[in-house]
Amino acid sequence: MIALALTPQGQAPVAVTPQPAETLVAFERATMLDPNYGAAWRNRALTLNELKRYQEALAAADRAVAIEPTNSIGYTRRAEALRGLGREAEAQEAERRAKGLGG
Fold first, then answer.
1. DSSP class per residue in the chain
2. Phi and psi (nearest 5°) for 83?
3. Domain definitions of the chain by residue range
4. What is 2-100's CATH superfamily?
5. 40-55, pLDDT tens digit by residue?
6. pTM for this one?
7. How far is CA 27 from CA 39, 50, 66, 96, in A?
8. In the structure, what pLDDT confidence band is assigned to residue 20 with cuts at 50, 70 and 90?
9. CA-to-CA distance for 12 and 83, rounded, in angstroms?
10. Tell me, what's the pLDDT at 9?
């Protein structure tokens, strides 16, 4: 996984690692540098889902959706987290939202 963070020049890779825990640190930094960086929140949710930390993944996905409500990937990450939490009906609704946005 490649983690991106903000630099003075824009986005730049900050980690290329097969270790989700290490990658998560990079995305946490990115969201601290810019709390409105939707891609970092989406990727933070992805990484948290990989770590099976579904409640935290859901919070990150919700933040991503709040920042960029027309980005389908945020809803996909939300669905993954909800499914991990055993909330299938809500996961299906999130998937419908993602598909409705072209995801």
1. -EEEEEETTEEEEEEE-S-HHHHHHHHHHHHHH-TT-HHHHHHHHHHHHHTT-HHHHHHHHHHHHHH-TT-HHHHHHHHHHHHHTT-HHHHHHHHHHHHHTT-
2. -65, -40
3. 2-100
4. Tetratricopeptide repeat domain (1.25.40.10)
5. 899 999 999 999 999 9
6. 0.82
7. 9, 14, 17, 27
8. confident
9. 31
10. 47
